[in-house]
Amino acid sequence: MGCFSSRVEAPTEELPGPPAVELDAPTPADTAAPTQPAAALPSATDLGVSEEKLELWRKKGGGDLEPVLASGAVALLDAQWIISHAEAGGVLAHRQALPKEAFLSLADLVEATGKAGWLPVAALSYPWLTKDHPDPRGANLARVARALKALLSRPDLIPRLGVFWDFGSLHQHPDPPNGVLRTEEQNALFKEGLGCLGTLYSHKYTRVLRLTSFPDGHKAEDPAEGTNVAKYFDRGWCFTEQSWAGLTKAGFLSLDLGKMRAGTEYDCYSLAIDCTQDGGRRPPLLPSAFAAELESKSFTNGKDDKPLVKRLYEAAFKEQFGKATKLVYYNLGWGDAEAAQLAEALFVDNKKQPELAPTEELPGPPAAERDAPTPADTAAPTQPAAALPSATDLGVSEEKLAEWRKRGGGDLEPVLASGAVD
């Protein structure tokens, strides 16, 4: 969810608020992630998709997202539509004002699920730039579109991608300064969507795209009254989303788009390399550690938002670690302190011993088992240069291959060449 300072404030004379603000602070019952028995989930016939595709979608945990997608609480934007809208110089409108073709249906997402180790779902984490609109000039839209274009450069891996962007994915207050608010039905769906945020961002097989920097030309020093001017890492919602993304997700599925370089034409591989520099993630935080750090983060409405995100984080922590059997911690540059923090998270329930899943079931680079990694555990696999394919073998230029390996791509070549990772 975008990182505007509040999601739950009551509109007042003094604070028009972003379209996402809530009339009342949601209670735990309001924001509880909806549960639905497997028997109640739609069939392949209901969706108009093949049994094989639906089985693959649910094997990767897509069923966790189906209740809010089917109810309309959450609508995912079509990445290709975002790209086209940005290239036309557009600005993102609130959800109710977007055309039907801006969205992907549940059936579209199921059909887009491939054999690669992830779901065709991405969630955007970013700071709102003004109190009334998250991106009034379309500057962040252009940056996100650039990353999405790179991700879609391999249609055999990612044919289509649904993007959760709070402003376009959750029902908004269309014009709060003039008293145009969500309907009662939309309000109920908004609360239902809030309850699923932890699953969207923390799900092991969704992507998280983090805009950790302001766009060029943004003047945070001259904001409108009521605007949160804190940077990404100091905002409560952004911190929460980043923490969700750091639970059980493989590092290459959580990308820091603030690390994209101007003038660089990316594909999906080079984007992942640049956007996971310096490891790209911290070890997961225990709910108690998360709550302690949250105290230093910026909220406009901390009275309501802090307890809300604490509840959502704890629920996501229990959900994801309750399911995890094997985790990817690879080439992150962690030391003893990070290993100790990881061990705390993994063994918070000492009665539950981790099970080790077969390696071939886990997409992504070689994984450390569910125990505190030693330097040997977390070291990248080495392979003599002579064993790596040549430019002639790959049918690419020497210059391109040298640049790939200069950025560390050679670390990934053994598993890519072996077929362990698609």
Automatic annotation (TrEMBL):
Span list, region Disordered: 1-44, 354-422
> What is the name of this protein?
Uncharacterized protein
Quote the biased-composition stretches of kind Basic and acidic residues, using this chain's numbering. 397-410
Here the segments flagged for biased composition (Low complexity) are 25-44, 373-392
